[in-house]
């Protein structure tokens, strides 16, 4: 099978074919970009972006059914004329994971609106009783969520306890206090993991306030640091969004940076 389009459109086609996406990631190869998409029914799709080749893996019966479903929906998609509104960035949403820093959240939200992008903030929606991962999958299948931003701000304090550490003695308690660092809320770390499972890593950005304890195992995720105001990250964040197929005119960029 062949497919020439975007990763987002391919993801939408898979969802419309009746499959939930368990994981979507860019495989690490020296060769051109290869994306791997794992589905809920056991099938795996490898998309070779440079050639357009689609490779399906899995048990024979699952594999054949996935191929049939994909071929049908790829054929339907090819007969639909492309629409200018489909690629309009104003139709795209960015999912925001955040903690208690309302000022940083509002600053980010305002900048995205100035760029013509609708921020998707779970607390601002009814949620329809869905969990964050259910909401993410639903919005991704609808083709609206194109990027995720995680705000890591000074919401909690904590430190890692070593295996042989004693904390009952005064001197030990003093050492503990010296180790305590600001960290993001635990639900933010959890939701960040959910986001990483739902979107390719190159479509996620972490905005980290300086001095915060960084979560482990976030290698490969793009992150930007800021000292006082999240707007310090905007120039590079805009570049990152442009790399992810968002397009802005000079007036939008100027407005967002001011």
From TrEMBL:
Entry's InterPro entries?
A: CAP12/PCTIR_TIR_dom
Q: Where is the CD-NTase-associated protein 12/Pycsar effector protein TIR domain?
A: 93-227
The organism named in the record is Bartonella grahamii (strain as4aup)
List GO molecular-function terms, semicolon-separated.
NADP+ nucleosidase activity
Q: Which Pfam families match?
A: CAP12-PCTIR_TIR (PF10137)
Specify the taxonomic lineage: Bacteria, Pseudomonadati, Pseudomonadota, Alphaproteobacteria, Hyphomicrobiales
Quote the protein name from its UniProt record: CD-NTase-associated protein 12/Pycsar effector protein TIR domain-containing protein
């Amino acid at each position: 099978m062949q497919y020439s389009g975007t990763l987002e459109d391919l993801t939408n086609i898979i969802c419309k074919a009746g499959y939930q996406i368990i994981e979507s990631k860019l495989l690490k190869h020296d060769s051109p970009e290869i994306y791997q998409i794992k589905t809920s029914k056991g099938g795996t799709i490898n998309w070779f972006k440079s050639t357009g080749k689609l490779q399906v893996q899995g048990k024979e019966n699952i594999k054949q059914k996935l191929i049939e479903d994909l071929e049908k929906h790829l054929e339907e998609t090819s007969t639909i004329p492309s629409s200018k509104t489909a690629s309009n960035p104003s139709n795209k949403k960015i999912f925001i994971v955040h903690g208690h820093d309302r000022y940083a959240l509002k600053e980010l939200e305002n900048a995205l609106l100035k760029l013509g992008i609708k921020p998707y903030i779970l607390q601002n929606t009814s949620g329809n009783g869905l969990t964050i991962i259910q909401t993410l999958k639903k919005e991704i299948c609808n083709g609206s969520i194109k990027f995720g931003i995680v705000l890591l701000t000074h919401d909690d304090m904590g430190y890692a306890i070593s295996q042989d550490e004693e904390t009952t003695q005064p001197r030990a308690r003093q050492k503990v206090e010296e180790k305590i660092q600001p960290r993001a809320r635990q639900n933010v770390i959890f939701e960040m993991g959910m986001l990483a499972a739902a979107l390719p890593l190159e479509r996620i950005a972490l905005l980290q306030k300086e001095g915060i304890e960084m979560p482990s195992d976030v290698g490969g995720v793009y992150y930007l640091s800021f000292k006082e105001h999240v707007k310090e990250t905007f120039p590079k964040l805009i570049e990152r969004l442009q790399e992810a197929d968002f397009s802005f005119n000079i007036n939008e960029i100027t407005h967002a940076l001011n």
